[in-house]
Design goal:
27% of the residues lie in helices and 26% in strands. It starts with 35 loop residues before the first helix and ends with a helix. By secondary structure, it is of the alpha+beta class. The chain contains 5 helices and 10 strands; from the N terminus they run H-H-H-E-E-E-E-H-E-E-E-E-E-E-H. The strands form 2 sheets. Strands 1, 2, 3, 4, 5, 6, 7 and 8 form an 8-stranded antiparallel β-sheet that branches. The protein has a two-stranded antiparallel ribbon with strand order 9-10. It has 2 domains: 30 residues; 147 residues, Protein Transport Mog1p, Chain A (3-Layer(aba) Sandwich), CATH 3.40.1000.
Amino acid sequence: MISEPELEGGAPFETAEVLTEERPPRPPRPPRARRPWLWALGGAVAASAVWGAGLYAYGQRAEPGPDLGGYRAVDDLCARAELKGMAAVLGKRGTAGAGPELDDPAMRQSTCTVNFGEGDREQSVNVRYTLHRVTDPGPEFAAVAEEFGLTEPIGGVGEQAFFSDRAEDGGMLRVLDGQAVLELEASRTYYETEDGELVQQGAPDLSGSDVPLTQDALALMAALKK
């Protein structure tokens, strides 16, 4: 019998591989990196948010206003305006009343009318106090004074002061001191008769009223800083 070499000393057969439909599992893929442009976009959005928040916070901070030099808004202007200088000219101080007021973030303005004398000799002095909280009234002060006919400069009171001399009929003084502007006006009082005729009240001669008005302005400036 012929022997099969494979069975009698030949190399043994290798075990046949069984084919099946199942495949061995694939090794897991490494995590997929994000695209660079997505990272850049996210960083830009975050930076914009931070920048916007910074701008908002900056806008919310109150900007420091100008130095008011000790001046402050007051509700009792008539009480602070003693006007002793004009009282010496016009007589005993009488009634006083506050006029229109303006209270705005940019400025505070108060007015007052003080009466002096009695009967047909009663006269009045008008006072106006404006405190500029934002803008500087200095650059335009002289131009405004000239527009109102105040052309005579007065020294020794505030930074600038101008006076309008109306001779025996009185005068008006306008003073600039930092952010504050004061106006003091003394003038003859007239009344109208039944016939429509203007009659002058019996007041003393108001010539030279710049001196008592200046004295009263200095006293009022000090009172407004208390």
